[in-house]
Amino acid sequence: MPAKTASETWPLAPGFNTGLAAIDAERQQLLQLIYQAHRLAEQGASTSSLLQQARDLIVCTAAYFRREEMIMQALKHPTLEATLVAQGKIIQNLQQDFNSRAFNRESIGEFIIFLKDCLIAHIINANKNLAALDSALNHKIVDLLSSAEPLNSSHCVDIYIVDDEQQHVDLMVEITSIAGLAATGFTSGKLFIEQPIANTDIILLDLNMPDMDGIEVMRTLYNKGCTPIYILVSGFDERVLHSVKQFADTKNIIVAKKLSKPINTKEFIHYISQLHIETRLQLSKSHTPQKQTINIKEKLSLEQLKTAIRDRQLVLFYQPKLDLKSRKTSGFEALVRLQHPELGLIFPDQFIAMAEENNLISELTYEVFRLATEDYVTFREAGIKPNISINISAQDLLDLSMPERFAALAKAQHIPLEVITIELTETAILQSVSDSLDILNRLRMKGFSLSIDDFGTGYSSLVQLYQAPFTELKIDQHFVMKMLEDDEALSIVKICILLAKELNMTSVAEGIESQEIWDKLAQLGCDLAQGYLISKPVPVDVCCRWVAENQPAQSFG
Ligand code: C2E
Ligand code: CA
Ligand code: CA
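# calcium ion complex -> structure
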């Protein structure tokens, strides 16, 4: 902001004195901001910078109103209610006027004058109400205001365009810039989810992308605790948009709008501008102190991952697997997390790949196994003797000493190997079928059970399935989640259940989030169920309490 000179002060400002220095200072500040925007318009600033100024002014006016509200509340002023109604009306009028304008210099210049006029009318009115205030209140008001959000706080809302078509990304970034807003484009969902994204950012998300589709992007961000505002874009028909909206609703994810391609440019410019104001107004209302971003990948370095594995920062969370017929708990899947002293709890999709790429996975898997055997003792002390499933990576299948080392860990805690299931994804097995068969057989011969995870995505042949000594088949959760709306997904789930039966394997459906899906799976004869409907993964002590509350006096195994 440029330094003020005496000649640059708003000529009308001195006439609005209440006699209370704190209130007067607030108004002067707001009027100066309006004056600066007005000057910019007069000097012929670009439309995009004026648009930015105009939007900022609406947000600043709302912030000023909240400060005024605080003062009146502290004074228990009799006109508080009426003032709030009047304030609400002004903000609504400002938004309406702004949104109905053409986005050009003259029109936005006129809007700034309109805003000034609305505010001055409000101040004249308020002055009548605040007349004859006791100046002894000055101190109290200064104290009060010091804890409030400043007038021109720069709550920023970032906009992202995520679409696999480069041309479309460029176009949308360009269109957004016409609204005076900056957007960042991504052509890959996978790359995008690694960015620092705040819950208050706006994401224009294409649903149909080859590397990671839009719903997967939403799900991944949701699992990281990140729920930004989405505008969904699809080249498909309304049905796709509708079913994604339903998914979002169950998770309380805000889908501000659904758009079908091709997008109406003019409408979009106005829409994004309006959404940006509304989000900022919402944000300043909730007094969010700072932008809270999820930026795990950028922060967790390889060094930190190494330290985490060696300094025992890994922890296991457990998710129950229930028998679909009897509803009894059959066991728990151990899912690793990294509890970092500064970065907080970090999920496996942020570090497993890094461990695999940097030759750390064998060490990580060993640590997971060690933790699982330690936790097993905790379960046993709570009177629970569950089956435990542990996830391993493709690279673990290259380590010939692995079966022996795992068996030794279990034996050290007197854990029968039969209660441990080793889960391996279908794609991991496909990477090294012949090499892995040897190790898989050795694990099986020692008594471990073997599960083929995320089944249905990797195209393994029946022969491969038949050759490998698997005892369990886990249907990929994406099929389970979609099975009620998508006939293809339903067919895949049915085939998986049949295949498991034919090959004498236990079928497991994971990702069950609704009773309807549970019922359908029970009807199809699936054996075991896992998913948020039953429980999210939880730490071992919470898991023991869950068993006590949900399934007391139950035998496992
Ligand atoms: P996975 O083995 O397929 O595990 C299931 C994932 O789905 C878990 O995510 C779980 O929290 C999540 N999930 C379970 N039920 C539901 C549900 O109803 N709805 C939704 N939306 N999600 C559900 P998590 O814990 O983030 O793990 C992600 C992946 O990381 C795992 O997928 C697994 O491939 C890998 N992973 C986890 N722990 C380990 C480990 O110790 N070693 C290795 N190598 N990989 C691991
Ligand atoms: Ca698994
Ligand atoms: Ca899985």
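# post-check
DSSP finds 22 helices and 17 strands in the chain.
The first helix runs from residue 21 to 42.
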